[in-house]
Amino acid sequence: MPRLIFLMALLAGLAAQAAEPIRIGLNFPRTGPYKAEGVELKRGALLAIEAINREGSVLGRPLELLSLNSASREDTAERNVDKFAQLGARMVFGGATSEEAIAAGKRAHALGMLYFATLSYANEVTGREGHRYLFRESNSAWMSAQVLGEYLSWHLPRRRYHYIVRDDAWGRSMESALRAATGSQDRARHGYTRIPSHNARREDYVKAIQRAAESEADVLVVMLLGEDLLHSIRLARNLGLGSRMQIIVPNLSKSIVQQAGPRVMEGVIGTEAWTWRVPELEKSSEGQRFVEAFVKAHQEYPGSAAASAYGIVRQWADAVRRSGSLDSEALIAALENHRYQLLKDGQEWRAFDHQNVQSIYAVKVKARDEVMRDPYKQDYFSIIHRMTGEQAAPTLEDWQQERGDMLSLQ
After folding, report:
1. According to the UniProt entry, where is the signal peptide (predicted)?
2. What's 31's DSSP letter?
3. What is the pLDDT of residues 380-399, one digit of tens each?
């Protein structure tokens, strides 16, 4: 009997390989300021597809990944969606900025394809700009602000803040949410500097850091991503700000610490939706297998970008299996209010806004000496606080207030 089962599984696998593949499209930054995150996205997606095809594929057909470079530009991301549609992709996912996800998501909607946003943290993605064909796996700015606000109110109460903010949808929504969560809305007391969202020059970073140094702030919040963040953190360290201010980076990532170096990032506090340590914390066997597979393939630990891409592909494929369909409307019905456990504790695709509701973690970058003792020298984060998704995510009332007249997804 075991031999028969093995042969049947083998024949099913061969039949799936011979069937026409189901194509899905990854919009990812192969170049530009977020290219390191793009590498993670693609690696996570490929691991998911390998696992799905090994387990018997989807509707008897293997998955195939199509990938196009978005360079984190909205217009390029939109054009890529058109190319994916022409190539027969059944869904699109990815993105490294909120503007990119919003633009690409709207284009996918017009073409009848689902779009899953990654690394797109602005509240608008699933808030004011949300629609039925867009789902976001990554957390929102609001969710990051809630876990950070609670941690800071407990451990650094009544401090003076200074904000350096990327002048885009994510930066503005993150600033607003964190000011509210920390009680630092008074801009006269808690100062700020804005960095242009495009074509920022070195002098923009220098002026921003000098203004922070001249302030009386105890906490420096650097609301930047990618290379913008790297420039600013290095300048802050060179001026010695880390020794007299607690530096906060609301959305930390493995790739940022990797590029800047643990000495530069040591002691920085931020948030992550996932780190390679989370599966052990949450007793997730699937998450631990994912970490092991990623390490085996790449000789390094996976970051949250890889986990997000992996989770999206697995969840989309699961919805296809459960609905027995590739039709977008059928998949929306299968995803909405679907609860699952994959790489951590329980998660849910919330129906009213299509936000993935999941636990969020406040993390702190470890001392360099501790990091260097790790075999891969990438054990960057200590998890210092945890908040459930239900606590962190905006309520229906909060969401409807942001939406205005559009009180349901269209």
Report:
1. 1-18
2. S
3. 999 999 999 999 999 999 99
